[in-house]
Design a protein that fits this description.
mainly alpha
């Protein structure tokens, strides 16, 4: 029995898969099809990788170091002393915790 209630999109999909089914009758063609699809997906993945490259960690570190150096230049002498005291206090607390 045929289902006559198919929509236009369903017919197109059925025809597409029907054509694939007819052309993929031998194991060689099936394997070739799998390899072609795999190669296509690999190329797409590499293309997407180049569109959105991974950030360079060294450049990010250098930018952060420059920001910290600029921040230190802007600080006044009293602010630098306060920062130094707070760092010393934190280290003393760490030393107390490790001595326990």
């Amino acid at each position: 029995m045929l289902n006559t209630n198919l929509k236009e999109g369903d017919v197109k999909v059925a025809l597409f898969f029907g054509l694939i089914n007819k052309s993929m009758k031998t194991p060689f063609k099936e394997l070739l099809g799998i390899l072609v699809v795999g190669a296509f997906l690999t190329l797409v993945a590499h293309g997407l990788k180049y569109l959105n490259p991974e950030p360079n960690i060294l450049e990010e570190l250098e930018e952060k170091i420059e920001k910290v150096q600029q921040k230190e230049i802007i600080l006044t002498e009293s602010e630098k002393e306060l920062e130094k005291k707070s760092a010393e206090k934190e280290w003393q607390e760490v030393d107390k915790e490790t001595d326990k």
